[in-house]
Amino acid sequence: MTLTESKLKDDDGDCPVAQGILVEDNMLLVPAASAPPAPEPADTSTSTAAPGEFLSASTLQSDLQRATYFKNPTADMLQQAQQTRSSAGGVLFLTIPANCRGKFTVPKSIKTGHILSGDKIDLSCADFVHPVTNINACEILGGLEVIVPTGVRVQMKGIGILGGFDYRSQGQTVGAEQDAPLVVLSGCAILGGVEVKVNKSVPPVRVVQ
User: Fold this and answer.
1) Which of 12, 36, 70, 133 counts the highest number of beta carbons within 10 A?
2) Are 152 and 123 in contact (CB under 8 A)?
3) Do residues 165 and 128 make contact, with C-beta atoms less than 8 angstroms apart?
4) What is the pTM of this model?
């Protein structure tokens, strides 16, 4: 043990003061300074969602506010169309509504009948899975209002007796694709009527191949 180590030695036999310093043969050896610790990698994670998620949410919101025609629907879509109520009717204050409003899958055919009452079928944001949707209406002293978005083709085949089938916006389908969904209205209106209106406040129907 060198003289320096002997002077620095404490009662317990340790050399805490001379730790890391070695004196030997009149030469002071000091260990080389260690390199500073590498900085920790920056945390690149943020609470903000990925851009794709924003697009997906935006697309979902847009789909909820517009009608879509699926030319090649899946089995689940066809099943949803079958589960949609396809009949409605009413007499005076007793009414079974069609509940065809908002976002729903349009069935292949819808039948309605009203006496001294009425109903509304709103297809503005509906999903079409059939190329042709038939709506058969029998209105006696009552009425049926059908609302479609721009681009949906409409064909009137009903008979009116002191009533009628009214479609005032036939030009709304000008320029529409030939594979756009077609809504065919048939039946009779006696002292009543069936009216088709175009909802121009929503985007045109979108065709998905």
Assistant:
1) 133
2) yes
3) no
4) 0.66
